[in-house]
Amino acid sequence: METTELQARLALFDHLLPSQREWTERLLFQLAFNDVDHIEAVGAVGSGKSTLALTLAELFSEQYNVALLNTPADEAQVASQLMQQWFGLPAQAGIALSEQVVAQTGTVPLLLIVDNAEQFSSVLPQLQDLPCLLFSFSAKPLLDDGLTLTISPLTSADAEYLLQAEQLNPLEISSRLAAANGNLHLLLRPAAARPVAEPEHTKPAMPPFKAVYIAIAAVLVAMLLYFFWPESKAPDTPVRIPAPIPAVTTEPEVSAEPEILAEQETIIDITPELIPVIPPSVSEPSVAEGTTTEVVTEPAAAEPVAKDNAIAAGAFKYDEAQLLEMDKQQIALQLAVLSSNASLQRFNKAYPQLDSLVYQRNWQGKTQWVILLAPFSSTTAANQQLAQLPEALRASGPFVKRLKAVQTEINALHRNQQSVPE
After folding, report:
1. Between 380 and 251, where is the model more confident?
2. What own/partner pairs with CB < 8 Å and gap ≥ 24 does 341-344 have?
3. Are the CB atoms for 149 and 27 separated by under 8 Å?
4. CATH architecture for residues 302-419
5. Helix 75-87 and helix 97-104: axis angle, to 10°?
6. What's the rounded Cα separation, in Å, for the pair 332 and 105?
7. Theoretical Cys-Cys bridge with 183: which of 46, 80, 172, 404, CB 3.0 to 4.6 Å?
8. Could you tell me what percent of the chain has a pLDDT over 90?
9. Is the pLDDT of residue 415 over 60?
10. Contact 117, 138 (CB under 8 A)
11. 51, 52, 63: which is closest to 5 by C-alpha?
12. 35 falls in which pLDDT band (50, 70, 90)?
């Protein structure tokens, strides 16, 4: 799909949050290089799905005949709404919706946007059969095929944009963002609720202090009674203490103490010699901070499989053998993930100046074509190359990953292909 005009229009949408703009740019990038009819946006409650649905309806309105479903409806109501929004006609009873749409389709392509797709789960199969481009928004994947784009969680930049009118400091913004847990509605709600909530916490604080004051006063009274009450009774008590009493408690244990102390000193002098010296452990090198890396859980048997790569190199269709020969500690810059070889050809035609490498991997049961620039000796070198990429590529979200992760994905796909009987 040609998306140059759509990208130009998107630049005028100044109401979007930074993360929402980034998601829309990713969508346009996928449409430019992938032949997909169904795109599913998955995000949690309050992540901004409805805002993005309305944004796409406005963004595509000049190139597509757009219909939007966002209220619960049964099959007959859905047919009536779509025919009315697309063609201004009533739905015909007894005729399949797909047949009615095909009969009215003109030169302008059709686009269907379904918000809160969970409300239309019973009619989603019929909607997927319609001759249109379909965008659906839901909290979990519902479509059988197509492309899934996850809506990113709220960022600190989003929170600053939304809360700028409240003039909060960075610490307060971070606290509000953490309490919202990705929900836009919760992020905005505490501003009005905070003055009411604070008095409930401050009122119970007084009784404990009063209790402390009472306890201190009681202790002072007890001390006064203890020290001054016996003096008032002094005339009634004998003044002198009989002499034999202190003489009984002095002599029995005088000679035993020096021997015990001597034994303790010898034990203390010996113990330091019995403590072994343990050498410090050596930590393994890690990727420099400030970079984004893809974490891949590597199976325990991945290393032995890599030894057979030279023998199986002829089975690879792209640059897998070359990537497997590289040092696994080196760095790669992942540019794009495509869904077909035709998309790969379009990418190469659009960016012929890039000396990219391609390999196949299996992701959630589907084969994907991954495009890289490699190798780089460090993440700093990879990030310098990233800054020199064309603007459209930078907007799609390239990121840094270790070649070890790339080799793991290649080996995993190769093992799966070998295990399938011919």
Report:
1. 380
2. 341/369, 342/35, 343/33, 343/34, 343/35, 343/369, 344/369, 344/371
3. yes
4. 2-Layer Sandwich (3.30)
5. 0
6. 46
7. 46
8. 41
9. yes
10. yes
11. 63
12. confident
Between CA 373 and CA 337 the distance in angstroms is: 13
Alpha carbon 205 to chain centroid distance? 39
According to the CATH classification, is domain 4-150 in 3.40.50.300?
A: yes
Domain boundaries, the chain: 4-150, 156-193, 302-419
Alpha-carbon distance of 419 to 166, in angstroms, equals 60
CA dist 75 and 124 (Å) reads: 10
pLDDT value of residue 254: 39
The token pair that represents 219 in the structure block: 């202790």
Alpha helix ranges (H) inside 34-112: 49-59, 75-87, 97-104
Rg value, the chain, Cα: 37
At 79, which amino acid appears? A
Is the pLDDT assigned to residue 222 strictly greater than 70? Answer: yes
Distance, in Å, from the CA atom of 88 to the CA atom of 63, rounded to the nearest integer, reads 18
| 8 A C-beta contact, residue 346 and residue 362 | no
pTM of the model: 0.57
Q: Which among 415, 210, 196 is positioned nearest to 320, based on CA atoms?
A: 415
